[in-house]
Design a protein that fits this description.
By secondary structure, this protein is of the alpha+beta class. The protein has a domain of 146 residues: NADH Oxidase (3-Layer(aba) Sandwich), CATH 3.40.109. It is built from 8 helices and 5 strands. Strands 1, 2, 3, 4 and 5 form a 5-stranded antiparallel β-sheet that branches. It is globular and about 55 Å long. The termini are far apart.
Length: 233
């Protein structure tokens, strides 16, 4: 059977198109499998969302927002609704987002302490003073720590990348969070280690309270054209 060149190229183009469709379908199926683990409580105290799969409201919420929209909408949330704390599964998913961050030479010098235990949080908040009230109001916290023996030069940078990933993931889930700094304040770092029973060899970069936002905190437009230098300074 003889096929002319034009028809051959059309057939090959069609098969390449089908190949892309299959790859996209497999990617979406893997995404569904991953996001099916989201079962955290809803933002703002709304009624429980559907869980898992493309029919779940949480999955639709995640997939409906583009990366750039999510970045633009991220804000520092300091006001939280008193409701059920974020679940362990949701905190673990946020930490997974953190661990997907870039890291120099792939050293991954980070550790993450997370809790939604009211007794632990209340006791720590009483010891910490500044920032402790936000942790108590949020009902959950993620502490990002570095291990300098793994990467002395870059642990703080790598952990900062992880912290930003977590903050973006918090925004994507409709939750609220804020970066509460510790590093490079040695006293503050030590206080946090002591308050949560974390060994001193792990250095605290920051704490991130995680909870349901009241809606009071809004994103800020920080675009400044004067700080964008193109082709020449």
């Amino acid at each position: 059977m003889i096929i002319d060149n034009n028809r051959y190229f059309k057939i090959m183009k069609y098969f390449k198109f089908l190949q892309r469709v299959v790859i996209l379908a497999v990617t979406l199926l893997l995404s569904v499998s991953s996001f099916a683990q989201f079962d955290g409580p809803p933002p703002g105290g709304r009624p429980p969302m559907g869980q898992g799969g493309p029919g779940g409201a949480r999955f639709k919420q995640m997939m409906s927002r583009t990366v750039l929209e999510n970045i633009a909408n991220r804000k520092s949330v300091r006001n939280f609704v008193a409701t059920d704390p974020v679940t362990k599964d949701t905190l673990e998913m946020l930490v997974k987002a953190g661990m997907a961050a870039p890291t120099a030479m792939n050293k991954q010098p980070w550790h993450f302490f997370a809790t939604n235990d009211a007794k632990i949080i209340e006791a720590a908040a009483a010891k910490l003073g500044r920032g402790g009230n936000m942790i108590a109001e949020a009902g959950a916290v993620i502490i990002i720590l570095g291990e300098p023996t793994v990467s002395e030069m870059f642990w703080a940078i790598d952990c900062s990348c992880a912290a930003e990933n977590i903050l973006l993931a918090i925004e994507a889930l409709g939750l609220g969070g804020v970066w509460l700094s510790a590093y490079p304040n040695e006293q503050r770092m030590n206080d946090i280690n002591e308050a949560f029973g974390i060994p001193a060899e792990y250095k605290v970069l920051c704490m991130i309270p995680v909870g349901h936002p009241t809606g009071k905190d809004k994103p800020k437009d920080k675009w400044n054209k004067k700080k964008f230098h193109f082709n020449k300074w």
